[in-house]
């Protein structure tokens, strides 16, 4: 899940409907520039993407994955990735956890939701219960491990939304 790719405005040259050139213009009644097809007049909207993950808990520990891909290769994150069409947010969290950590979880309550407007993303994390210890790195992970709070590699956490989520998580647990 190469989320947080370098921030760039969504760009489009050709119409996905008919293949003609598109132009950036503000459609009548709208307030922002959109890619509008010069031939079929289709308006192609670009909206933020959802990145969904979970915090898998086992006793006092949580499961983190060491990223095998850029950006932030070698840094740690809970299992998370882009939501797919046709799935719910909790299904996305379950699927990403299986793909990246080969781990089975029961998804619990929604825990955090953070807007990341500079890359047009929304990051969502659920709490989750790890069902067994039969986990292993998936194709996008170098390593998967359980951490106590004192062992969390804070300096090697992949993204700020994750360190924010984990700080709130441990603050909540103390209460
Ligand atoms: Zn078109």
Q: Can you offer a commentary on this structure?
A:
This protein starts with 21 loop residues before the first strand and ends with a helix. The strands form two sheets. Strands 4, 5, 6, 7, 8, 9 and 10 form a seven-stranded mixed sheet that branches. A three-stranded antiparallel sheet has the order 1-2-3, with no helix packed on it. Helix content is 16%, strand content 35%. The longest helix is centred in the C-terminal third of the chain and has 15 residues, at 160-174. The mean pLDDT is 94. It is of the alpha+beta class and 175 residues long. Zinc ion binds at residues 15, 17-18, 20, 37, 39-40, 42.
Q: What's the total helix number?
A: 2
Which percent bin holds the helix content? Answer: 10-25%
Radius of gyration (Å): 19 Å
The amount of beta strand, in percent, is 25-35%
Bound molecules: zinc ion
Average of pLDDT = 94
The backbone outline, from C-alpha atoms, is elongated
**What is the string of helix and strand elements?**
EEEEEEEHEEEH
The number of strands is 10
